[in-house]
Amino acid sequence: MTKVEDAREYDIVIWGATGFTGKLVVEYFLKNAKADIRWTLAGRSQDRLHHALLSASENVSVPKPEKKFLIGESEDQASIDRIASSTHVLLSTAGPYAKYGTPVVDACVRKGTDYCDLTGEMGWIRKIIDLYDGQAKSTNARIVPSCGFDSIPSDIGAYFLAKNIREKFGTPVKSIRNIVEVTGGISGGTISSGIGAIEEMQKGKQRPTRFFLNPSSPPPPSATTQPGDIIMPVWDEDVKKYVCIFPLAPSNVRYVRRTQAILNYPYGNFKYSEGMVASSFIVAWVITFLVCGFMLLMQLKIVRTLVGKIVKPGTGPSRSTMKNGYFTCVMVGHSLGGEKEGGRVFAKYHLDLDPGYMGTALMISQSSFALLRTRKLAREGGVLTPATAMGDSLIESLKDAGMTFSISETYPGF
Questions:
Q1: pTM over 0.90
Q2: What's the whole-number average pLDDT of the chain?
Q3: Collapsed DSSP state (helix, strand, coil) of residue 91
Q4: Considering only 90-99, 112-121, 317-326, which range has the smallest mean pLDDT?
Q5: Cβ density class 133-143: b for 16+ within 10 Å, e for less
Q6: Rounded distance, CA 52 to CA 156, Å?
Q7: Measured distance CA(359)–CA(398) in Å, rounded
Q8: Residue 310: which pLDDT band, with cuts at 50, 70 and 90?
Q9: Of 112, 156, 146, which is closest to residue 132 (Cα–Cα)?
Q10: What is the 3-state secondary structure of 252-288?
């Protein structure tokens, strides 16, 4: 194992702080980072970083702290190396990650720096798994993509429920279904990352199989019966509601399956699926038509170009929209004891913030805090997931930050 020097100037560096979500992360740090955490911002422009910190401090009504900014560009690997070697944890909000993220991950892996980001770009995640998983294990660098609404509620939620089912019934888990209710807005950065994800998949001629993000070794035969993605509306008997396609499900479900495989299936080879709740049969079909139609159109370059010009990076929902947004996940888990034998447990997760922006800022910030807190513990590097890198420590952090976690044998409602 390569020994990495641990005496560093900073605990956490925020890379991409001048973007829409990056500024929200800075606001969250100003209000919630403990006084003994040494953190700063990094990016291409001293002036833009200064403005980002100033506007963030004004938005949350705290004095602007004095910070020494770190300057670098993703095209200049030496500058990224200097930033990565100066901190224990690098938090990146700079997407699209397929375009800007690889040099940052490369530096963190070589310097033994823990890393977290907000990507939902499956093709790029597969790329960094193939390129860096082995090397990250040798340097003890924990590379943790998807630490926002993509894919913390799904990954940590399934991990939390599976543990509870195993503890309650003493048997492996048969299945977990995640049903999501969400309100909020969308930003230009999200659209840009979505476009980047599509183009990365097309460029590599990749097909996202059900085990697309799993380690290279094949899953055990009993794990290969995973359900396909929910596309057409279905009636869910457990929650007595219609469930339809959820746009984030394709990456989320594969992320959960990666966690299962990395942990070597400690809770059984459970089936995992997720969808979005709809208020009626008609609404479910309207959502399905709109989501599928948009996803199909986005396969065309001319449509991606037009959408990218209309919704530009740096723009996003109003503060009122973000504060009034929320998400609720109701997960239904069954043990191998059988549904008729009472082996059913519900888990409910809720956060009263727009999940894609203020909620995501909370989730990735708490992920960086958890990475820092667990860095001194016995740990293994690699391209990991929130559940495999931080597990219970992240759950406690999210609870303390206001996300609610509950377990019950009766349907908790939305």
A1: yes
A2: 89
A3: strand
A4: 317-326
A5: bebbbebbbbb
A6: 31
A7: 11
A8: confident
A9: 112
A10: HHHHHHHHHHHCCCCCCCCEEEEEEEECCHHHHHHHH
